[in-house]
Amino acid sequence: GESVGLHLPTLSVQEGDNSIINCAYSNSASDYFIWYKQESGKGPQFIIDIRSNMDKRQGQRVTVLLNKTVKHLSLQIAATQPGDSAVYFCAEWKSSGYSTLTFGKGTMLLVSP
Amino acid sequence: DTGVSQNPRHKITKRGQNVTFRCDPISEHNRLYWYRQTLGQGPEFLTYFQNEAQLEKSRLLSDRFSAERPKGSFSTLEIQRTEQGDSAMYLCASSLGAGGKTDTQYFGPGTRLTVL
Questions:
Q1: According to the model, what pLDDT value does residue A64 have?
Q2: Side-chain-side CA neighbours of residue A62 (13 Å)
């Protein structure tokens, strides 16, 4: 069936490194993709989004890349900090039908000093 | 803090009891969503409201689950006759409600339910 999934369950990096978290999706009808960060004991926190008609979008220290040809989404975090340690989810949304998100399983990012 | 609040933050109950959770969305947001999240998984959509109207409830896990948003502001999620499999984090989110356009959802901290 259609799904949003992640390649790696855990990513360990050193402080100051750049991090790349990947996500594969299978629903080509999705209009909009979002990255959320979830720290332990908290709800998901919006990081950045990208519309399906875009290839790249940049925020503060974060960049999202969308490759529709291979249905791949990535989140790049520059100069990773210990406070970036969390689980990261990609989610997809499509404008037809009811307005909601489909989440993938998540990748845990561990940043060591 | 996103501005979405949920109460209680933690709930421990015995199997067979009823529980009710409350969500207060960001004040100007028209849409309110409920999700369930189990350990290691992403949030799973349950239901959503546009103002006081419940527009989608087919994803509620069973007829033991019900949700209300009587005045289009806060919402409650009730689980009747709880089972151990209901143990999870219950998340609420709200959004402005922008029709067919992208509509960012902001999540509350969640209510963690443990059914003994």
A1: 97
A2: 17
pLDDT reported for residue A6? 44
Give me the residues of A, 62-101, that contact B with CB < 8 A. 89, 91, 93, 95, 98-101
Chain B residue closest in CA terms to A106:
B42
Report residue B101's pLDDT band, with 50, 70 and 90 as the boundaries. low
Q: How many CB atoms lie within 10 A of CB A49?
A: 18
**Residue of chain A whose alpha carbon sits nearest to that of B96:** A99
User: Residue B99: what pLDDT?
Assistant: 58
Question: H or E element: which one contains A21?
Answer: strand A19-25
Q: Which residues of B touch A (CB under 8 A)?
A: 2, 4, 31, 33, 40-45, 48, 55-56, 91, 93, 95, 100-110
Answer whether A105's CB lies under 8 Å from B42's CB: yes
The whole-angstrom separation of Cα B26 and Cα B13 is: 28
Give residue-wise pLDDT tens across range B50-89. 999 988 877 788 899 999 999 889 999 999 999 999 999 9
Look at B102 and A51 and tell me if their CB atoms are within 8 Å.
yes
Cα pseudo-dihedral B47, B51, B54, B60, rounded to 10: 20
